[in-house]
Amino acid sequence: MKPPYKITQNILKLITSISEKIGEVNANYLNKQSPTLRKQNKIKTIHSSLQIEGNTLSQEQITALIENKRVIGPEKDVTEVLNAIKVYENLERFRATDEKSFLNAHQIMMKGLMTNPGKYRNKSVGIVKGLEVAHVAPPFENVPFLMKDLFTYLKKSDEIALIKSCVFHYEMEFIHPFLDGNGRMGRLWQTIILMEKYPVFEFLPFETLINKTQKEYYESLALSDKAGSSTVFIEYMLQVIDQSLAELLNFKNRTLREMDRIEYFLKISSNQFTRKDYMNTFKDISTATASRDLKKATELNLITKQGKDNRTFYTINSYSS
Hints:
By secondary structure, this protein is mostly helical. The protein has 14 helices and five strands.
């Protein structure tokens, strides 16, 4: 059965906006970010997704754990981050329409945090907000069948990936298939569904915006529950995705360090270029900053400087890219 939802005018507008932005991302080669930027965005994703679940570790502490350094913090929080690092550093190994892959991701994500990770729940559960029961999940006996239906929808529906990713996220949260880890798995699997169609989502940290708009996130889930349809949640998530892409495309709002700029430019540049070409990519830097960047890249043997004065140009060394 197709999960219940409607395609509203707002949804159509958001899909159009997102599609245009993805086209711009591809045209600007932003779907091939430098290793440094990819690492930074991965840290933001892990930090935001786990902070929603109450994790207290900072981005700096997560960076230290990625670099195999010791971190002082609650054991549970450290374990959550280490598990998430294993998952997000190996996103390509998971298959969006494969239920076994989904269970394997949960096993890695929740290892050491609960008994029997990677297994569907064997008891009934409800979600309590304050003194009220906000959501009663379907009986545990129904979970395997409901999840099988949901993966069948992913495999066989001709709906576009943007919609299917939102629908899966909502329906999985509604089914609440695990005793713990449902929220982080919903966000993770939406990323995996999207990145199979659009590579940019491998490192687009839309969890950051969900973290900033948690009230709206939970309200959209509750309103969809009440309506018996995921329409409201689809609209919320598409707005988050649209805004995340807008921020990716807005270089002026992004603080790039020297090596970030160098690594990014080497990924998108032709073999030969000038300082002017470099400055056309990073329009907010000064001539002096551009010269320092290029001097640094030359010292690192990433590029070779040729010519003099106004005829100076640079060649990318073949092994640097």
